[in-house]
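Exercise 3.2. Students should predict the tertiary structure of the chain below and write it as structure tokens, then compare their answer with the key that follows.

Predict this chain's 3D structure.
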Amino acid sequence: MALRSSDPTGLQSGVAKPSRNSRKKKKQKKRKEAIDDFPVIPEDPVAEQCGNDSSGTVVESTSENYGIRDNGNVNKISCVGSGSVVVVEESVCQNVCGFGELRQRNVIGGGEEMAAVASRAEEDRAEMNGSKEPLPPAQPEPVVNGNVANKLDTAESLDWKRLMSEDPNYLYAVHKSPAKYFLDEMYSGNSLRRTTTLGSEKERERVYDTIFRLPWRCEVLIDVGFFVCFDAFLSLLTIMPTRILIKLWRFLTARQFKRLSAAELCDFGCFLVLACGVILLGQTDISLIYHMIRGQGTIKLYMVYNVLEIIDKLCQSFGGDVFETLFNSAEGLATCSQENMRFWIRRFVSDQALAMAFSILHSFILLAQAITLSTCIVAHNNALFALLVSNNFAEIKSNVFKRFSKDNIHNLAYADSVERFHISAFLLFVLAQNILEAQGPWFESFLFNAFVVFFCEMLIDIIKHSFLAKFNGIKPIEYSEFLEDLCKQTLNMQTEDSKKNLTFVPLAPACVVIRVLTPVYAAHLPYSPLLWRLFWILFLISVTYVMLTSLKVMIGMGLQKHATWYVNRCRKRKHHLHFD
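Answer key:
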């Protein structure tokens, strides 16, 4: 903005009005002097300053953008004194920038002088705006002393007293007595209306999903996953040895070596890992580890068990990738040409060594975890309950209050199935130790402790998944979809995403189970001649194999029938799974 200063008193003295060109030159010449002589007047405090000014200066401001007149184009601020009038006019150009000017004139006189100043200001504005029609001058409002004063009206929306008077809560808090307040609280509706909201049908469904529908579906999913893991474990102990024996028999009878298929290479690789794991675990002194762990306090037991459990989950997650690499190398070795044979052999051997080292490490971790659980069960100072409570609630804390996606919850349910199978292997270890070393009646105590461990694990899984689904907006029908994917995996049906499959490598648990059951069998062998002892060894192995094979057939066929029934049911009632 620019300030222009002129002396309009020549109007009263009869001096001829200068031409328009001379007035422009005069304005340009004195522009800098006007800036130095007259400071810029702020918008808001103008009226206040002028109201207290004793010199009688009148300040008038006009704006096209912010107006308080009816046409919304002019904003005028006037201060009335006894002597002179100061007019501050802001003109806004039509261009985008919106530059304007401030003009200040000192007028000695009353209403007539003010009218002349206003008309002259309008002429200046017409010059600046070009073809824009000038606005009509504002009509002065008469006051007692004959000067002009425009007053800004207070907006009704900013009238604080009116707003407070219309607020019923304000009147309520000010004018109501304590007795009236108490009576109004009694008859005003729900007592918790200020801290709770009225629920809807959706909220009711959410409550019943959390309490009833989702726990049932979650437990069915985890149980089916447990039996899938058990079926893979039995396949490792029954199907794999049978196929290896058949291959060796064919090789001995045919006396001709043929290239092994990918499945046969995988079987031989897994058998080699299992044999090495059992041999190395057989060299471990379980009694020494048991007494070392038993000498620790309850807090140390809790810490040791948690550390072992974390390492177990890491090994379980990484073990699937290791064996997928091994099976990929076996597939490449079975189908490669003679030129690339040496490359694939080196690759298969390196992957086999990695899988062997990893499985042995995982086997030792599971063995130490089983010994820790056995120590807590055998102890008579409630160490088992302290361990279960602290460990399970720490699991709830680490999972429930985090944001999980649908795929993460899917994988978490599979991890709970694998964890439940590992707990079953640990309880089998405890049973074997009691058979070998316990004295007196111990079976009832073992059954009670096993029931407590399984019940706590089941309860924690239900609570964890119920609130995970509640906080992450997972419907119970999603768990039915998880179960459908697991059933398709059981039937070897191709799914859209193979990462949703349950991954479980039973080699480490098999090493632990064979290690703990071997002393039980050895303790019941007769101390007789070698042939008779070998006969009993073969007999016990055969009986165990038949029992495991029968159990494998029962569980495998049961899983196949259940998977077929459930997949067909989902196809028929795809949109009605909520009512199962």
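Discussion points: The two ends are 78 Å apart (CA to CA). The first strand starts at residue 3 and ends at 6.
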